[in-house]
Fold:
Amino acid sequence: MTRAGLTRPAVLEMAAVLADERGLRAATLSAVARELGVRTPSLYSHVRGTDDLRAGLAELALTDLADRGDRALAGRSGRRALAAWANVHRDYAREHPGRFAAAGTLDVAPTPTLEEAAARVAAQSLAVLRGYPVPEADRVHAVRLMASLLRGFVELEAGGAFGGRGPTSEESWARALAVLDESLTRWPHAALTAS
Amino acid sequence: MTRAGLTRPAVLEMAAVLADERGLRAATLSAVARELGVRTPSLYSHVRGTDDLRAGLAELALTDLADRGDRALAGRSGRRALAAWANVHRDYAREHPGRFAAAGTLDVAPTPTLEEAAARVAAQSLAVLRGYPVPEADRVHAVRLMASLLRGFVELEAGGAFGGRGPTSEESWARALAVLDESLTRWPHAALTAS
DNA sequence: GGAGTTGCCTAATTGCATTAGGTTCCTTAG
DNA sequence: CTAAGGAACCTAATGCAATTAGGCAACTCC
Structure:
């Protein structure tokens, strides 16, 4: 019997494809094995089980995002950087919905690789902020604001909440970025009104 | 054998409790039956299966949210209305994480009850907007902005992303609301910078 | 107090996850 | 060149969740 040439990356890649095509919940060990032309238990040589598959998927996706984020930020600053970085996330979510969902799953055990990728993304959001007059002490708040708006929009859009009637989500996205840009630009004022 | 007195609401309530305590994924038919002291197939007289259980949970949660939203908006307008309404969602998510997650699950079949509850929540966000000078044509964008920020923040907070180091998520929440309030107040300007 | 409906049950099937324990193929040291 | 060892994949078997089919008992209502 010829071997299938399984490797951990190959298994994770197939899981990622399945997650993108049929949803994260469809990326099961059974489905991956079936798709690879292999029996389910054979996968256990490469992943430790379902949890590990999920964790590996999260790592894969978050690392992808971090890589794209770095490329997007290269040579940009201010609102250009903000838009490019935010678009990386939105585009990734549309291109690879399953992987994006896996990256957003916060209930996987934090592996070193995962932590590192998360740290890279965090560093990127701080880098974006460097283009705005947000005082040191407020940076965390601004990062959380950016992350919240970004994640919320992308998830709602992916879930179809902005489909159908009304203006395109494209326009809303442009507006949201404009609002975010202005809020960050005028941050000192925002801080005043927080009292 | 004495009967357990099952009803659809009782089944859904138990599912909701389980979802809140052990996570949405733990709210399975098996677990609900076990907790109710009943065999799994007995539930099929009250719910059609797993999908229906999920849908019922989503209805329950979204209706709860709509009810609370109505109460929060009564007699309030402007930033008071915004804060009260946004807090309803955040508080609900913290009080009933499983139910909130069920409400946010956008992959359940849309039942009439679910549609109605969703429409009520949508109406509430439009009501909040009435306290701000957002032109008619831009209301949808503003609604999407509010919804995105709200959902993103609440989910990230629930996932523990704002825990640990740094300032409290409480502060960040106050800041986010302040920024949102100001952005809506200054909306005409935001519209200009969108170009 | 009997007929029918309803509520809950047992039995049985299917599918995914997981563990245990082979067997075959490939590499590499002697 | 060959035999040892490990890696890759397999079959067998178990457990749990979901689902369907069909049965009996307990309420209801005339």
Summary: The CA atoms of residues 23 and 98 of chain B lie 5 Å apart.
